[in-house]
Amino acid sequence: MTTISNRPFNTLKIDDSCKRKHTVTDDDLIMFAKASGDLNPLHLDDVYAATTAFKQRIAHGMFTGGLISAALAMDLPGPGTIYLSQDLQFKRPVCIGDELSIVLSVIEKHESKPIVTLHCEVTNQDDKAVVTGTAKVMAPTVSMTVQTVELS
Questions:
Q1: Residue 79: phi, psi to the nearest 5?
Q2: CB neighbour class for 106 (10 Å; exposed up to 12, middle 13-18, buried from 19)
Q3: Rounded to 5 degrees, what angle do the CA atoms 22, 91, 115 make?
Q4: pLDDT tens across 52-96, in order?
């Protein structure tokens, strides 16, 4: 098992950041389609996708949003974080094989509540933004280290 630790509200500073990496696979698209029910052939059917402007299958937009959610939950602020809102702009398609970097940076802290706003940017292997936006979360107020669940 892996252990992860959070960064409580009182320890967070403006410009604190984290970075995660993820390489997009065919299995990612299939599992996301199963979980979400979004069976758009643009994401799942090579023949159909070849007829579109993208000329190939692309990842669901919210799959990339899910990578941001993972960074919030696992890294910054980490375990105990409660997602309040997300604003996303989809800049370019994400394709199977893309090597994505997910970067979160603290840009605002609420004065009287443990609410934090983070700038979110996902870039591809060419360092081009595929998604940008902001997330607002309720940060944990107590430091904790927890074990993650092993997925089979």
A1: -50, 135
A2: buried
A3: 70
A4: 999 999 999 999 999 999 999 999 999 999 999 999 999 999 999
Q: Is residue 7 part of a domain?
A: yes
> Which two structure tokens, joined as six digits, stand for 30?
């299939």
Give the model's pLDDT for residue 96: 97
DSSP helix/strand/coil, 6 = coil
| Residue 46, domain member (yes or no) | no
When pLDDT is cut at 50, 70 and 90, the band that residue 152 belongs to is confident
Q: Where are the alpha helices (DSSP H) in 52-150?
A: 61-74
Asked if residue 66 belongs to a domain, the reply is yes
Residue 14 lies in a domain: yes
Return the beta strands (E) in 1-138 as ranges.
3-5, 17-23, 82-90, 99-109, 115-123, 129-138
* pLDDT tens profile 120-131: 999 999 999 999
CATH number for the domain including 131?
3.10.129.10
| Number of structural domains in the chain | 1
Query: Can you give the pTM of this predicted structure?
Result: 0.94
Using alpha carbons, select from 79, 138, 111, 107 the residue that is nearest to residue 13.
Answer: 107
41 CB contacts (<8 Å, ≥6 apart)? 48, 49
